[in-house]
Design brief:
The structure holds 2 protein chains of 2 kinds. By secondary structure, chain A is an alpha/beta fold. Chain A starts with a helix and ends in a 31-residue tail after the last helix. The relative contact order of chain A is 0.11. Chain B is of the alpha/beta class. In chain B, helix 1 links the parallel strand 1 and strand 2. Classes of the chains: A alpha/beta, B alpha/beta. The interface between A and B is large, with 47 and 39 residues.
Chain lengths: ~325, ~140
């Protein structure tokens, strides 16, 4: 896969279709694949990587990059194409400045799962034939790749590319029985006290690093409400238990109807808070109350919070049991 | 020490064109509503940002009610239809986080419905008083 992508990127750079490439390079750790812009063939040959740890959604970077000189090549996984489409619908990306290559994806790996197996001091990971040979300072261990698949990929909603200029690999289909709302339903079935205890336990770990906001393709306002010192939630360190609640409710509300459920918020959270469960609650509610809607699937569709019908349900009716 | 009766703090966001006039109507008709209800006038019920509601709770409110024109009667044609969608989602989310859903409410009260205003506020106040103090969304700094 990496060779094919690199070859095609080099061709497009050579014939002048694009003048730079947005992809991934190795970051600080061997499992930390960081988004990177490559401006020359040498740079690309040198640093470009693509493997199971390239989980980052590159579409948000295009808000800035698509406004630069010339065209940029970007590699998008199926879930990333939804975010890309949504940003086009919001007029945030200049489509004519982007050349999209859709790449097939069968799920990305989550290094946290490897760490949970007791692997620490990882110095390298060799990937082949559905297995990872994890090299650590304490010795090597072979792990089945499927055991390290990220949670969000286990409930993948779609393997279909909703937008692309060309494809490398196969285009898949929307996954109908992805069960992505299972956990939301489980929470809904709990009593309010249990739910409160669950969320207090999760949200109180928040350190307000803003990583969820910074990585979210939907959270791309030029001025964010949370940067307003009068918002009451602008502090870095929460002085009480309320702020995390408020921050995460408001953040989820601001992306309601625009969140494509890419799962980046939970992936980057250094405290492992399942933030996608807040977004999924809104998605599930909107599907139930206002009809099925998938943000990013159709850039011309009306978002549920941007429209109304005369017979909408009343707020006091309640959503949960 | 004398035991003081617990009085909840209620914030009522009232739309300028209907519910605020409805509150006025309640006054002219000598209908009472609890003094615990603090009315905040907004140009339209859809002016109410979810953050206003959370901020009210943060600053010590025990209940928040949003009152606007009846659907179809909005002074700005469609504002309250958007309020309805937003608040449906927000209330459902608060419930999902384990916050009592009786603490929040939306009511449609027209300028002619002084009696409904008074009745709604009395009812809501009683409901919130029965729930007791808001402990789940409060800001501890304000409770010194």
């Amino acid at each position: 896969m990496q060779e094919m992508m690199e070859k095609r990127a080099l061709e497009l750079l050579a014939d002048g279709t694009v003048n730079r490439v947005l992809g991934w390079s190795v970051g600080e750790f061997p499992y930390d694949m960081t988004p990177a812009v490559f401006r020359s063939a040498e740079d690309l040959k040198d640093r470009f990587v693509y493997n199971d740890f390239c989980g980052a959604n590159l579409s948000k970077y295009l808000i800035k990059e698509s406004k630069g000189e010339g065209k940029i090549l970007v590699f998008l996984k199926p879930c990333d194409t939804y975010s890309f489409n949504q940003l086009i619908a919001e007029h945030r990306i200049k489509r004519e400045n982007v050349y999209v290559i859709g790449i097939e994806c069968y799920g990305k790996a989550d290094v946290e799962k490897l760490k949970a197996m007791g692997l620490s001091g990882i110095t390298g990971i060799q990937m082949k034939n559905g297995e990872y040979v994890v090299e650590t300072v304490y010795g090597n261990k072979t792990v089945k790749a499927s055991d390290a698949t990220a949670e969000r990929c286990l409930s993948c909603k779609s393997k279909k590319h909703v937008v692309f200029d060309e494809l490398i690999g196969e285009d898949g289909d929307v996954v109908e029985d992805c069960n992505r709302f299972d956990m939301v339903e489980k929470l809904e079935a709990m009593t309010p006290d249990e739910r409160f205890a669950f969320w207090r336990g999760e949200l109180s770990r928040c350190i307000r690093c803003n990583a969820c906001r910074n990585v979210c393709p939907a959270c791309s306002c030029e001025q964010c409400v949370f940067d307003n010192p009068n918002s009451g939630v602008a502090q870095k360190a929460a002085v009480n238990s309320f702020e995390e609640n408020m921050f995460h409710i408001i953040r989820a509300f601001h992306v309601a109807g625009r969140c494509t459920d890419c799962g980046e918020c939970s992936r980057v959270c250094p405290q492992h808070i399942p933030l996608h469960l807040l977004n999924r609650k809104f998605i599930k509610d909107m599907n139930e109350f206002y009809g099925e809607y998938q943000a990013g699937a159709d850039p011309d569709a009306r978002p549920p919070l941007g429209t109304y019908t005369k017979g909408d349900r009343e707020p006091n009716e309640g959503g949960n049991k | 020490m004398p035991v003081t009766e617990y009085k909840p703090k209620i914030v009522a966001f009232c739309c300028n064109w209907c519910s605020y006039a409805g509150a006025d109507g309640a006054g002219s008709a000598r209908l009472s509503y609890p003094a615990e209800v603090k009315v905040i006038r907004v140009p339209c019920s859809c002016r109410v940002n979810p953050m206003f509601i959370l901020r009210a709770f943060q600053r010590g409110a025990d209940g928040v009610i949003i009152a606007g024109c009846h659907p179809g009667d909005c002074h700005y044609t469609s504002g309250n239809y958007f309020t309805r969608r937003r608040m449906t989602l927000l209330f459902s989310m608060l419930d999902y986080l384990g916050i009592e859903r009786e603490r929040t409410r939306v009511e449609w009260i027209s300028a002619a419905e002084g009696a409904k205003f008074s009745k709604t506020m009395n009812e809501f106040c009683a409901t919130v008083a029965a729930l007791g103090e808001n402990k789940r969304l409060e800001d501890l700094r304000c409770k010194k």
